[in-house]
Design brief:
This protein is of the alpha/beta class and 421 residues long. The protein folds into 2 domains: 160 residues, Beta-Lactamase (2-Layer Sandwich), CATH 3.30.450.90; 245 residues, Rossmann fold (3-Layer(aba) Sandwich). It is built from 16 helices and 13 strands. The N terminus and C terminus are likely disordered. GO terms for molecular function: ATP binding; ATP hydrolysis activity. Pfam families: T2SSE.
Length: 421
């Protein structure tokens, strides 16, 4: 807030985080008898969401590189000492033409301009830090700054201000069904950069439009900004709105949420709290870095001591509602297209989880298409047969290449190269 009690106007090139004064400080000042600005509903303008650190103007070189990434519809900007800046465009990482190699002083200057004092200290002490930064209201980036071989490095990931619809993303009907569960756990899995955050954002946006409820997100950092609609949406950023991810999880039950969106479940504590949230009447969306649904279930169970695994299998079998595994494939021409594995927990799936027979889960997925389930390979075959990706790209995405049907041979009625149909 400024001296008049109004929100600070956002300036392009400034990272956005919490304002220097919040409503709690105003309450304390009021208790001390200090005259207060007019805070009536008629005079007060709500501040914009606080999402990234407040700092000095961005370094002009950094701003130019980020604008290059936006102009070329890239996903990631890599800054590494001794090599030129690189951009990932349509999934391919290439050096930016005409850019000289980075040196440590230049990179430190760029990073310092994007970090406030607290986060800069954390970067120096912890040797890494996550945060977000904005060029303007429409151009935001998730940043991981880290050290390698004693030098600073950073990756800036572009975040769309526009949240695509489920239809625009091509999200299958089985995935869309998870929005309608009143409670339970839905896992989103896949490698980094596979579009998990975008799919989750589209689901949260649809819920916010249609369900009168409280949606709580705990993110590190906040990526997509959601507007209050039919639902009230509270977004908490680790390091800005809450000290740690675990602190945010522990406080969640006291914040009366109906739907909870979490970042990655990283350890036993975060997994344990997440399961508790899911079994106490909340619909919880969470992320794991595994390849498929069966591996996600194994990862959760294996995080517990051996003597507790039977109990956790029983607990997980009752709270799990679904697992969505996804990949982003290079579209022919330009762009990316999603491919999805969808597991929805029916009685057969719950029994397999309870009995520890996760290797059989894929067979259930393959035979329950009528319930909205699908294997990743069936999804890959769909986008391949539609002519959106190449056969070589399809094979590169699959753990079961023999199930991928080469459309050149399928049209001729021959056996596809991937194997017999």
């Amino acid at each position: 807030m400024n001296a008049d009690g109004q929100p600070h106007a956002h300036q392009p090139g400034r990272p956005i985080v919490d304002a220097p004064e919040d409503d709690f400080s105003l309450l304390y000042r009021a208790a001390a008898g200090t005259p207060q600005p007019d805070r009536s509903l008629d005079s007060w303008t709500p501040p914009k969401p606080s999402l990234a650190p407040t700092g000095d103007q961005l370094d002009p070189e950094l701003e130019r590189l980020l604008n290059y990434l936006i102009a070329n519809r890239g996903s990631d900007l890599h800054l590494t000492v001794e090599v030129p800046p690189s951009a990932r465009i349509d999934g391919t990482l290439l050096p930016i033409e005409g850019e000289p190699p980075m040196d440590a002083d230049r990179l430190n200057r760029m990073l310092r301009s994007s970090l406030n004092d607290e986060l800069w200290t954390r970067f120096i002490d912890d040797r890494q830090v996550d945060y977000s930064v904005a060029l303007d209201d429409d151009s935001r980036f998730r940043v991981n700054a880290f050290h390698q071989r004693g030098y600073p490095s950073a990756v800036f990931r572009a975040i769309q201000s526009y949240i695509p619809t489920l239809e625009e993303l091509g999200v299958p009907a089985g995935v869309q069904r998870v929005m309608n569960f009143p409670y339970g756990l839905v896992l989103f899995v896949g490698p980094t950069g596979s579009g998990k955050s975008t799919t989750q954002a589209a689901l949260i946006s649809r819920i916010a439009q249609n369900r009168p409820c409280h949606i709580l997100t705990i993110e590190d950092p906040v990526e997509y900004v959601h507007r209050h609609s039919t639902a009230l949406v509270s977004q908490r950023e680790v390091g800005t709105d809450v000290r740690t991810f675990e602190d945010g999880l522990r406080a969640a039950l006291r914040e009366d949420p109906d739907v909870i969106l979490l970042g990655e479940m990283r350890d036993l504590e975060s997994i344990s709290i997440t399961l508790t949230l899911a079994e106490t009447g909340h619909l919880v969306f969470a992320t794991l870095h595994t390849n498929d649904a069966a591996q996600a279930i194994d990862r959760i169970v294996d995080s517990y001591p051996a003597e507790r695994r039977d109990q956790i299998q029983t607990q997980l079998s009752s709270v799990l509602q679904g697992v969505v595994s996804q990949r982003l494939a290079k579209r022919i021409g330009k762009g990316r297209v999603g491919a999805y594995e969808v597991l929805l927990a029916n009685d057969a799936v719950r029994n397999l989880i309870r009995e520890g027979k996760t290797r059989q889960i894929r067979n259930v997925i393959a035979t329950c298409a009528a319930e909205g389930m699908q294997t990743l390979e069936s999804s890959i075959n769909a986008v391949l047969s539609a002519g959106l990706i190449t056969y070589e790209e399809a094979i590169s995405l699959s753990q079961y290449p023999k199930e991928i049907q080469d459309p050149r041979f399928a049209r001729a009625g021959q056996v596809p190269l991937g194997g017999r149909r």
